[in-house]
Write a structure and sequence with these properties.
Elements (H helix, E strand, L loop, with lengths): L3 E2 L5 E2 L3 H4 L1 H4 L13 H5 L1 H6 L24 H16 L1 H7 L1 H10 L6 H9 L1 H7 L3 H7 L4 H10 L16 H16 L9 H9 L4 H15 L9 H17 L1 H9 L5 H9 L8 H14 L2 H15 L11 H9 L3 H4 L1 H10 L4 H19 L13 H7 L4 H4 L24 H14 L42
Antiparallel strand pairs: 1-2
Amino acid sequence: MARIERGNGLSSAESSRSLRGTTENLTEDGEGNSYGSDSEVNGFAVSEEKQADKYGFIGGAQQFSGQSAEEIPTDVLRQREAKWLEMLNSWDKWMAKKHKKVKLRCQKGIPPSLRGRAWLYLSGGKVKREQNQGKFQELDSQPGDPKWLDVIERDLHRQFPFHEMFVARGGHGQQDLLRVLKAYTLHRPEEGYCQAQAPIAAVLLMHMPAEDAFWGLVQICEKYLPGYYSAGLEAIQLDGEILYALLRRVSPVAHYHLKKHKLEPILYMTEWFMCAFSRTLPWASVLRVWDMFLCEGVKIIFRVGLVLLKCMLGSHEKLKSCQGLYETMELLRAIDPHYMQEGFLAREIIELPVSERDIEKEHLAQLRRWKETRGDLHCKSPPRMHGAKAIMRAEPPSRQDLRQKPTIIVESPLATKSDGEGGEETKESKMTKEEIQKKTIPPPQETANLYPAAGDPSPLLKHMTVQGSRESLSSAEHDTYL
């Protein structure tokens, strides 16, 4: 088993390059070419000269391309937005009684305008924030441990350097990233900072204010991927062995090839799992995977890894040009774009028959093997929560914890129409909506028309000013983002 060191990077005694992907490869483009000075990738000139794509990227391998993403018709997107707003207004009832429909809608993809809010609800970050009012502000006001601050500050410019939010050295994106990561080191001083946390926090910051991103990071580190970022990285090594064992069932050919060349899982899956594929996939696929991951849990991360291994190494024909360990590693560093395309990948993930039970069964088997060969784990991680429903069941929220601020009431027939998954509405949910309207209907001048007439050229909130990428969102201004 490769030895992993933690702190100022992910490294391995046997293969330092493969495990330092989060430090060395972050500024490489899709062809493996490193960009030069920081001014080229983190200067204002770049963002002003190039047009950002719809995700905010101005270049790099993850910039939008029509081949990598699915286009959703506007009318379908409006229907989905209305349904998600309805779900968010009665989140506890939907999770308790219609969780399968919530899961189906996450698999289809969360509407971009509501993704940040939906992620916060799915992860349980919304409840954590409400139950710990003022906690982030308290942590944010503290100076932090200089040991961790020094490492974090050196990492800031490496996080999505081609995204308009992080392109400016010392800009609001990098400042908020520093705040979130510093707050986590103060929240969990026994863990401190691990480099793979930075891209996780950065993805969250692209969709929500710093306070919300902090609680989202807390939930991912403590509930979805517990132990991944602890000293020794034992949890990620254990999950590597679980992935390897599951691969034997999913693709015997790929499993035999990796076994034949003694290619240990830790050499190719570390960055995949620790960064939740945010550094590997095209951006449309990253978002689709995260929608499912935050709903269904770590099994989605396992499924993505299994799909990629099966597609790249799953037939003798594909292995003809892959005769050794080095060639295999190079192949896994340059995955065929077709296999990472949003539509293809989402279908393969959904159809792959790997369940929470399969993962937990293999987890117990690998734990026994670990104890036999290496003794007890040094890091005692909390139990892993398999998705939003498990998190909510473990820590039942109050209605006040789930209440939206401000409450958004949408009167639209789209909310009850079907887009192929059934649009029925229960009597109970109708009563809930009426009760909410009586108690919390906003003043007329503050009510936003989310769904204007067909002739209106803007489908979004026209009266709201969209702030530039160098301005951070405040969690007190929930009506400035959806």
